[in-house]
Design goal:
Shape: globular
Largest sheet: 12 strands, mixed
Strand content: 25-35%
Radius of gyration: 19 Å
Number of helices: 5
Structural class: alpha+beta
Helix content: 10-25%
Order of helices and strands: EHEEEEEHEEHEEHEEEEEEEEHEE
Number of strands: 20
Oligomer: single chain
């Protein structure tokens, strides 16, 4: 079956936890943003009783299991427990996620290196289908999550990388809805097919619904697929909407095998490259921060993205604008 691209958000909140929009208001916001699917993940509450479609927008059931030790998203099935939850230990988290997975849920660990509400348990302790590599507006903590995920890929572990806006509200002139957007390559826009694409690593995470897109293939293989390594194996990358100074990078495992820096805005850039190693191929778009932007980001990280009393992270010199999940080379 031919796959199509569907734009969505994995991490949204309503007034049923600590968001400012009612469910119907949030859904209308998703439609106006051009999203095809959305997962409502209120803290410790099942807002969506059953996944449904609203004028073509697929609304997927979800919940963010939220405790001091960490935040974990459960998608596509109810968390089969009633509040108050026992979230005092890794074992108590596992009890909840294992029970949800037994009902068919997809599990994703949220913002594991967040300076505001960090994951305080052993990351390997939760059986996860996905990890939220990119949480809310781009900032330095996400670089740590990306590095951790790439380390897992290097070990051959197949964990889907996703992004979630973690939307609660806008902050004055800062409109953060749909930042980032996860674009799935799915068989359809049904809840089952969207969640399968997320689990299988068939997605691209980009800054907003209309930001740059990455189309990565290795001969007949697409994101999430596996292909045999043979002599002369080649891949193709197309990156859209490359702004001046953006750098496109393609990796074969930890080796940079292609890069291109845009000297001016490019509507699209296409390149072919050779693949020499078993493992995986992935792509990303990165951008360096000008000093005034870095200072502004540092101010935001210190005052809004770091919990009181916690060490303030060093502001990154470079951030990522879009990333792909891998194609596996066997």
């Amino acid at each position: 079956m031919t796959r199509r691209w569907f734009k969505g958000d994995t991490h949204l909140h309503t007034t049923n936890s600590d968001g400012v929009l009612h469910q119907y208001e949030l859904i209308e916001r998703c439609k106006k943003a051009g999203l095809d699917w959305a997962i409502i993940t209120d803290h410790n509450y099942n807002t969506v009783e059953k996944s449904y479609s609203s004028d073509g927008l697929t609304v997927i059931q979800g919940q963010e299991i939220t405790g001091y030790n960490g935040h974990v998203n459960v998608w596509g099935a109810k968390v089969p427990f009633e509040m108050p939850y026992d979230l005092e230990s890794l074992e108590s988290y596992k009890k909840m996620t294992d029970a949800a997975k037994a009902l068919g849920a997809t599990v994703s660990v949220n913002h594991p290196f967040c300076s505001n509400c960090p994951y305080r348990m052993e990351l390997d302790g939760i059986e996860m289908d996905c990890v939220e590599v990119w949480n809310t507006i781009q900032h330095s903590d996400n670089n740590k999550a990306l590095k951790w995920w790439v380390g897992k890929l290097d070990k051959g572990e197949k964990i889907g990388a996703v992004g979630g806006s973690d939307f609660h509200r806008d902050y004055g002139p800062a409109k953060i809805f749909g930042m980032p957007t996860t674009i799935t390559h799915a068989k359809s826009n049904s809840p089952e097919d969207i969640l399968a694409a997320l689990r299988e690593g068939r997605s691209v995470v980009t800054n907003t619904p209309n930001a740059s897109m990455l189309y990565l293939t290795v001969e007949g293989a697409e994101l999430g697929d596996s292909i045999e390594l043979i002599d002369g194996l080649t891949g193709k990358i197309t990156a859209t909407k490359l702004h001046r100074g953006f750098t496109l990078r393609v990796y074969n495992n930890d080796k940079l095998i292609y890069h291109h820096r845009a000297a001016a805005y490019e509507k699209a850039h296409t390149a072919h490259f050779g693949i020499r190693e078993k493992g995986y191929v992935r792509a990303e778009i990165d951008y360096k921060l000008a000093l005034p932007v870095k200072k502004l980001l540092g101010f935001a990280e210190k005052n809004f993205l770091t919990s009181r009393g916690a060490p303030v992270p060093e502001t990154a010199d470079e951030l990522f604008w879009a990333i792909t999940n891998p194609i596996w080379i066997e």
